[in-house]
Design goal:
Number of helices: 6
Helix content: 10-25%
Radius of gyration: 17 Å
Distance between the termini: 25 Å
CATH class: Alpha Beta
Number of domains: 1
Structural class: alpha/beta
CATH architecture: 4-Layer Sandwich
Strand content: 25-35%
Number of strands: 16
Largest sheet: 9 strands, mixed
Order of helices and strands: EEEEHHEHEHEEEEEEEEEEHH
């Protein structure tokens, strides 16, 4: 495990979570539980292993950081249109796992239609737009919000496709951080490493329109820790060497 301080009391970690030490809070985003059943509905069957991987990862995080609160910053579930049986079951199981060990708060993401039905039945606080906490505003990132201050968000699923000496490529999740105090989390789902930072020059998040992606600093989550890759602009300049 490795963690790196971005700002006072704010750390990113190789566990793909953010540790807000002052508030004793862990923030994660984009679990996309139930994704396997959604994929199966399109004719492709894959093993349903995501829930177990996520619970194992959460168990490690809770043991390491002993958080008072865990905030899920959107897209706890995957299906847009309804709560599939697998999705409902797995979302409830993950929420129960966390609630038995810490205080759980859920912020709505763009995939979280009908999630409020599940959180209400479990008695979990559910925030439609975002959650102010200490010096930061925690949101998913899909809404066109006017946020005056520092922000923690998901939605973008930042990742980077890198190349080794044998020209094999590997896609790894990344954190992004802007000098103004915006931190973008990688997807917590093992099935959703997301969009390659080099595949485009604009964010999909409405809340980030007007920000230059090249000014964000990227931290790649490697197998043995965090790798500071400097800014996205720097990475693009070094593209022939690493990508």
């Amino acid at each position: 495990m490795q963690k790196k301080r971005l700002e006072r009391d704010l750390y990113i970690t190789s566990d793909r979570c953010l540790w807000y030490r002052k508030e004793e809070t862990i923030v994660i985003a984009d679990l996309h539980l139930g994704q396997e059943s959604s994929i199966a509905s399109q004719g492709t069957t894959i093993p349903r292993i995501q829930r177990d991987i996520i619970i194992d990862a959460l168990s490690t995080i809770i043991e390491r950081y002993q958080p008072r609160t865990v905030v899920i910053a959107g897209d706890l579930k995957h299906e847009f249109n309804r709560n599939r049986k697998q999705e409902f079951r797995e979302v409830y199981q993950v929420m129960e796992f966390l609630r038995e060990r810490t205080s759980l708060v859920v912020v709505r993401g763009n995939h979280d239609n009908y999630l409020k039905n599940i959180t209400n039945s479990a008695g979990i606080p559910f925030y439609e737009h975002g959650l102010p906490m200490g010096d930061y505003y925690i949101t998913h990132g899909h809404l066109d919000l006017e946020i005056d201050g520092k922000m923690i968000m998901g939605h973008e699923h930042p990742s980077l496709r890198i190349r080794d000496d044998m020209f094999a490529t590997l896609k790894r999740p990344c954190f992004l951080h802007h000098p103004s105090g915006i931190t973008i989390l990688p997807a917590f789902s093992p099935l959703s490493y997301g969009r390659d930072l080099l595949s485009g020059d604009r964010f999909i998040s409405k809340v980030l329109q007007g920000y230059n992606m090249d000014e964000f600093r990227a931290y790649l989550v490697a197998e043995d820790g965090l790798l500071d890759l400097f800014t996205v602009g720097d990475i693009k300049e070094a593209m022939p060497d690493i990508c």
